[in-house]
Amino acid sequence: MAASINKQDARTSRRQFLKTSAATIAASALSSCGWRLAEVKSNPRMQGDSDLLYIYTWAGYTDQDLLDRFYDETGIKVVADVFDSNESMLARVQAGGGGAYSIIYPSDYMVQKMESLGLLTELDHSLILGLDDLFPEFQDPIYDPGNVYSVPISWGTTGLIYNSKLLPTAPTDWEYLWENKNLISKRLTLANDVREVMGCALRKLGYSYNSTNVESIREAYQELLILRPAIASFTTDGWRSQILVEDLLIAMCYSSDAAEIKPENEDLEYITPRSGSSLWTDTLVIPKNAPNPDGAYQWINFMLQPDIAAEIVERLSFATPSREAYRRLSEELKEDPTLFPPESIIEKCESLVPLGKYEEVYDEYWTKLRSV
């Protein structure tokens, strides 16, 4: 990424893997959006079941209201399957599962990898409405210049969520974990993600998240070995319930997850480390051999509607790349540093990029670290 998500209900993590899929058939009242998706120019050469759209996405990226509204506007029923990591998604696509989907939600660096493997369709921009409304940095992203293969749908940072009532001092940077490893011992979790975990150690040492210097990568591993006894587990979503019941003091997490869970406990705070972190963008792509590419373009246009994008920020806690959607947000949301950190922090963050043969070096150290 899907089950329906309600902010008053127990919530599903952005990166949590669900073993079931969710679909929508019911209709809801159509909100005025200025134009109808069904009227958008379509390509007569596109083939497939026009009444059914399969998407492969992160958990928490859709809810019943969103799927119902799309059905209302287009008459297309959506079936959403979810994945827990870019790597597991890629493995399924490469194993042949990708042909079942017309929309997939890879993160920035994975767009590059999927394109290099010949898995993506080059987008026809004449069929897409709203690309010119994206903030400039999202119109020509480093991972996909000119948005040839992908459309950004959300973005955020990776940082630390912590219980301010239980920690005597607030963390400001990654080094806090090492300096306070005895205090937070076994009440700390790191993400179940090799690039994020190795990246935070690299950043602590002053190196790039995307380092290809073998010695720097080894140093980062050595730093993590020092911290390893304090780490309760590597989990991308399990921290949520644990931090709410105060079993955990601090956890590495995605900003969108933090924004979603903070209202459940007034003592929870989130920081993007001041030395910098990963800056992720999740996107929409159309895979090769998509069974319903026409429906895929309608989904892309639907998600780019400013009113839809603004509702997603408010309801699902994702930062939007749309200028008009951002303008529609309340001042409270615009000023929320969890969703929209200050530019001084953003400037120090990095987008992850594929590392080619060096990914094997990262994976080797990651395996060793988790086996200790």
Output the CATH topology of the largest domain: D-Maltodextrin-Binding Protein, domain 2
Count of the separate structural domains: 2
Order of helices and strands: EEHEHEHHEHEHHEHEHEEHHHHHH
Number of strands: 10
Radius of gyration: 20 Å
- SS element count, helices: 15
Classify the secondary structure makeup into a structural class: alpha/beta
Query: Which CATH first-tier class of the largest domain would you pick?
Result: Alpha Beta
Our measurement of the CA-to-CA distance between the termini, rounded to an integer number of angstroms, reads 30 Å
| Unreliable spans | 1-47
CATH architecture term of the largest domain:
3-Layer(aba) Sandwich
User: In percent, how much strand structure appears in the residues?
Assistant: 5-15%
Shape: globular
Mean pLDDT comes to 87
CATH superfamily of the largest domain: Periplasmic binding protein-like II
Helix content: 25-40%
Biggest pleated sheet: 6 strands, mixed
InterPro entries: SBP, Sperm_putr-bd, TAT_signal, TAT_signal_bac_arc
Organism: Okeania hirsuta
Protein name: Spermidine/putrescine ABC transporter substrate-binding protein
Subcellular location: Periplasm
Please describe what this structure looks like.
The structure is a single chain. With 372 residues, the protein is of the alpha/beta class. It has 2 domains: 52-155 and 280-340, Periplasmic binding protein-like II (D-Maltodextrin-Binding Protein, domain 2, 3-Layer(aba) Sandwich); 157-279 and 351-371, Periplasmic binding protein-like II (D-Maltodextrin-Binding Protein, domain 2), CATH 3.40.190.10. It has helices at residues 64-74, 86-94, 108-116, 136-139, 175-179, 194-204, 214-227, 239-244, 255-261, 293-304, 306-316, 323-328, 331-334, 343-346, 359-371, and strands spanning 22-24, 52-58, 77-83, 103-104, 151-163, 188-190, 231-234, 250-254, 268-271, 279-284. α6 crosses α7 (214-227) and α7 runs parallel beside α15 (359-371). The model is unreliable at 1-47 (pLDDT under 50).
